[in-house]
Amino acid sequence: MVFIHGQSVTWEEYSLLMPLLLLCGSFQVFAVTLSGHGNSSWTPGLYTFNRLGADMTAFLRQVVGRPTIVAGNSSGAVLTAWLAANAPKQEAREIIAWKQEVLATDG
User: Fold this and answer.
1) What are 30-80's pLDDT values in tens digits?
2) How many whole angstroms separate alpha carbon 36 and alpha carbon 24?
């Protein structure tokens, strides 16, 4: 399973969720930090969904190496939708996209 974070955050957006999935025993879990986020440099004009999508497609092919579930939140959800439309099906088998505000409750 691969998680894609939202705007202005990093892979750590999923740091509480990842251990729970690992306890299930049936998931290999990845959480990425996209180019232009975290400690990476910022080069104007390099962060289009086409470019980030190509980066994610390469990650799925070269690192994950098999069909996987891809989940994204906020702008990461938009990127998961891009993958659903553009990534080869042998790399991104299931796509889950959500906006965190939809999952939040007021208690």
Assistant:
1) 888 887 776 777 777 777 889 989 999 999 999 998 888 888 888 888 888
2) 32
57 vs 43: CA distance, rounded Å: 21
**Cα 56 to Cα 72: distance, rounded to the nearest angstrom:** 12
Structure tokens at 98: 């959500």
Whole-structure pTM value? 0.75
The residue to which tokens 């993958």 are assigned: 83
> What is the DSSP code (8-state) at residue 84?
H
Q: Is 69 in contact with 94 (CB distance < 8 Å)? A: yes
**Beta-bridge partners for 4:** 32, 72
Element (H, E) at 71: strand 68-73
Query: Which pair of structure tokens corresponds to residue 31?
Result: 């959480």
Radius of gyration of the chain (CA): 14
Give the Cα separation of 95 and 83 in Å (integer): 8
| Token pair listed for 51 | 């470019």
